[in-house]
Amino acid sequence: MAQIYDHIVTFIVAGHETTAGATSFSLWSLAQHQDIQNKLRDELLSFQGEPTYDDFANPDTFPLLDAVCKEK
Asked: pTM to 2 decimals?
């Protein structure tokens, strides 16, 4: 049981670190490219209503957000 607990803790910490690193890099990169940041903001603000998970998961709904998240 202790070994399973150790594996779970490892997965949580590893997942946290990679997510934090990716988020930090994305925000830093957007700060360096104000034009992309402004286009992304406009894309998100142009959506009518509250986006759902499916809206975010669909690359056609927010193509620039999809490109930023996938570092395209």
From this structure: 0.73
